[in-house]
């Protein structure tokens, strides 16, 4: 299995690069453009899923791609996630690069057998003769007030499975470059798109995006590091702005790759600030924040001024829309977590 995600230099420092043209677009538009370019560049790439073809997907991520690239490259499937992912295995074995979509994250459960027992293991089981270059797009997390099973936070489940790589973009620029990169990997990548950020607009450097590997510092700071991914990055940036009004200088680290985690970037940031708070939507117990906290402790034990704090969802099923505001970490909960860490005293 390839370990190419972290082959590049650490992303803790931004590399100097010439200015690239920027285009203002939403995350939905950035993902659509990335898929369009992947289809144009790779004749073996195929996109499919429920309503992905003529309709362009429930979130219109694949809008217009069937008309441009044809119904053999972009097509609809029956409402059967196990069939969608099982077909992905067969296509990958036949030399294609499947880019399937699970319409909502909660719909991935019926396909867990295919994901865990086939997609994640086939390359290992075949001693490298059957790679699985599958990029599974999963509209993820909450924030759109959807019904039950239409909002989940499954990153810990996917990250726990050997053979899978997991990534989640936080803004349009990251979405464009991370998806294009993921779609060239020889290994299966679970691409978790924060559906509440689909309509966020931002500048996208389409010709140069820096390194798409590892974690990325989104805001420099001195007093504490906020670690997040997906939709929670934007919330942490809001929190950092509010904290700055009280003279607290917060660094925000976008983890980006949830498997493998960029332990070097984590250590570099927390060694500088000496305090850390991890923020995610999934439940607290056995969430990915526990793995992040352990990596921070392992790499920064001698410099930490306080235990690593986690601000997360609660240990209940992900609620339907009316209760999302109570479940998803909000600004106040994150600020209280920061306060506890900053006020911690040993003994």
Describe this structure in words.
The protein has 347 residues and is α/β, with parallel strands linked by helices. Helix content is 33%, strand content 20%. The protein has helices at residues 27-41, 65-69, 81-93, 112-119, 122-125, 155-159, 172-182, 231-244, 263-273, 288-300, 324-327, 331-342, and strands spanning 22-26, 45-49, 74-76, 97-101, 135-140, 165-167, 189-194, 201-205, 216-219, 224-228, 250-254, 257-259, 276-283, 309-313. The strands form four sheets. It has a five-stranded mixed sheet, sandwiched between helices. It has a four-stranded mixed sheet with strand order 5-7-6-12. A three-stranded parallel sheet has the order 3-2-4. Helix 1 (27-41) runs parallel beside helix 7 and helix 3 (81-93) packs parallel to helix 4. The longest helix has 15 residues, at 27-41.
Q: Strand pairing plus helix content: what structural class?
A: alpha/beta
Shape: globular
Specify the helix fraction band.
25-40%
Residue-averaged pLDDT:
92
The quaternary organization reads as single chain
**Biggest sheet, strands in spatial order?**
9-11-10-13-14
Number of strand segments: 14
Low-confidence stretches: 1-17
| Major sheet summary line | 5 strands, mixed
How do the helices and strands line up, and which of them pair or pack?
Elements: E1 22-26, H1 27-41, E2 45-49, H2 65-69, E3 74-76, H3 81-93, E4 97-101, H4 112-119, H5 122-125, E5 135-140, H6 155-159, E6 165-167, H7 172-182, E7 189-194, E8 201-205, E9 216-219, E10 224-228, H8 231-244, E11 250-254, E12 257-259, H9 263-273, E13 276-283, H10 288-300, E14 309-313, H11 324-327, H12 331-342
Parallel strand pairs: 2-3, 2-4, 5-7, 6-7, 10-11, 10-13, 13-14
Antiparallel strand pairs: 1-8, 6-12, 9-11
Helix pairs in contact: 1-7, 3-4, 8-12, 9-10
């Amino acid at each position: 299995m390839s370990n190419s995600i972290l082959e590049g230099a650490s992303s803790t420092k931004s590399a100097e690069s010439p200015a690239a043209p920027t285009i203002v677009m939403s995350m939905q538009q950035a993902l659509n453009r990335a898929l369009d370019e992947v289809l144009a560049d790779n004749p073996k790439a195929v996109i499919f899923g429920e309503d992905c073809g003529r309709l362009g997907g429930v979130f219109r991520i694949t809008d217009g791609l069937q008309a441009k690239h044809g119904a053999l490259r972009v097509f609809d499937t029956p409402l059967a996630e196990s069939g969608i992912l099982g077909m992905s295995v067969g296509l990958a074995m036949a030399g294609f690069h499947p880019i399937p979509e699970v319409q909502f994250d909660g719909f991935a459960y019926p396909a867990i057998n295919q994901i865990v027992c086939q997609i994640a293991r086939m390359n290992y089981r075949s001693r490298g003769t059957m790679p699985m270059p599958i990029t599974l797009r999963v509209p993820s997390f909450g924030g759109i007030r959807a019904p039950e099973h239409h909002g989940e936070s499954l990153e810990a489940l996917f990250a726990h499975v050997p053979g899978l790589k997991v990534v989640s973009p936080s803004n349009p620029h990251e979405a464009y470059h991370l998806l294009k990169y993921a779609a060239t990997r020889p290994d299966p990548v679970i691409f978790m798109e924060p559906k509440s950020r689909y309509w966020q607009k931002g500048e996208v450097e389409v010709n140069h995006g820096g390194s798409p590997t590892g974690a990325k510092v989104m805001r420099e700071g001195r007093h504490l590091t906020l670690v997040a991914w997906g939709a929670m990055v934007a919330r942490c940036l809001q929190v950092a702005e509010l904290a700055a009004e009280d003279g607290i200088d917060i660094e925000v680290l976008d983890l980006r790759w949830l498997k493998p985690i960029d332990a070097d970037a984590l250590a570099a940031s927390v060694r500088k600030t000496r305090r850390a708070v991890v923020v995610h939507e999934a439940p607290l117990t056995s969430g990915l924040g526990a793995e992040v906290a352990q990596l921070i402790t392992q790499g920064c034990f001698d410099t930490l001024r306080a235990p690593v704090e986690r601000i997360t969802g609660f240990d209940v099923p992900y609620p339907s829309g009316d209760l999302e505001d109570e479940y998803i970490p909000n600004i106040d909960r994150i600020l209280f977590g920061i306060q506890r860490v900053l006020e911690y005293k040993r003994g």
